[in-house]
Design goal:
Membrane topology: Multi-pass membrane protein
Shape: globular
CATH architecture: Orthogonal Bundle
Pfam family, one: BPD_transp_1
Subunit structure: The complex is composed of two ATP-binding proteins (CysA), two transmembrane proteins (CysT and CysW) and a solute-binding protein (CysP).
Oligomer: single chain
CATH topology: MetI-like fold
Number of domains: 1
CATH class: Mainly Alpha
Number of helices: 13
Organism: Rhodobacter xanthinilyticus
Number of strands: 0
Structural class: mainly alpha
Transmembrane segments: 20-45, 57-85, 105-130, 137-156, 189-207, 216-238, 244-267
């Protein structure tokens, strides 16, 4: 007898809920991706490569993925520290800080971009400080990095925070009783439990950073080959009625994102198996 891939559930309506879920997945996720792939496939392999293999396109793709990965890595560290502080310590203003973490979720990206540009311009607080040090933030890669930090931090914090809340303090006390120092406890006890959630937060921040548009275009300056991001280049192609060029860049971004997220998921699987063997 063939074995069913769907495990039986004591709750009624499994078939209906599964059908609705798959239908929504197909409409919301698979249909847009399929349309993009069909548009890209219409160019053929040579046409697709010809559209992507241009210095301006490679510069935009490199800038978007490089800064998104860097911002996600920094947000990984900041988000872990922030999540730990919010869950483990009681200090004045903790609830206000906890609520402020969600601001990048609620704030329109255009408003965030205008606010960051005002702060980073030579007359702004951050920009004036950078000018005194002989640097510049607005209309440079540093400005893009700052915007990606702002929009990506909540993804790591909110993903890790519930896991921190579930970690039993007795595990840390038992580790200390057995003679382990704080760094050893952090490395051997705490980090293995946080690693799957931390990688998920990193992946979410990376995905948001790669596709971010509204908060970046105001602060980037949008100079071709310098501060022009890939999403902006797609918009420019569409405004020029170059649908083939826009689709080619979209397919390239989809392929690179898929490889990066696949690597992160494989690392998550490895970390979970490693925890199961401990």
């Amino acid at each position: 007898m063939a074995r069913s891939f769907i495990q039986p559930s004591p709750m009624p309506g499994l078939g209906l809920s599964a059908g609705i879920t798959l239908a929504m997945l197909a409409l919301v996720v698979l249909a847009p991706i399929g349309a993009l792939l069909v548009q890209g496939a219409s160019l053929g392999a040579e046409g697709l490569w010809a559209e992507v293999n241009r210095p301006r396109v490679w510069a935009a793709l490199g800038l978007s993925f490089r800064l998104a990965a860097l911002a996600a890595a920094v947000n990984l560290g900041l988000g872990l520290v922030l999540a730990w502080a919010l869950e483990r310590y009681d200090f004045p203003g903790r609830r206000l800080l906890d609520a402020a973490v969600d601001l990048p979720f609620a704030l329109p990206t255009a408003v965030a971009g205008i606010a960051l540009t005002a702060l980073s311009a030579p007359s702004g607080a951050f920009g004036a400080l950078a000018a005194r040090l002989g640097g510049r933030i607005a209309y440079t890669e540093a400005g893009i990095f700052l915007a990606l930090l702002f929009v990506g931090l909540p993804f790591v914090t909110r993903t890790v925070q519930p896991v921190v809340a579930e970690i039993d303090r007795e595990l840390e006390e038992a580790s200390a009783t057995l003679g382990a120092g704080r760094l050893t406890t952090l490395r051997r006890v705490i980090w293995p439990m946080l690693m799957p959630a931390a990688l998920t937060g990193f992946a979410l921040a990376l995905a948001r950073g790669v596709g971010e548009y509204g908060s970046v275009i105001f602060i980037a300056g949008n100079l071709p080959m310098q501060t022009e991001i890939a999403p902006l280049l797609i918009v420019i192609k569409l405004e020029e009625f170059d649908d083939a060029g826009a689709a080619a860049i979209g397919v390239a971004m989809l392929a690179i994102s898929f490889v990066m997220l696949l690597a992160i998921n494989l690392l998550q699987v490895w970390s979970r198996r490693r925890m199961g063997d401990v």
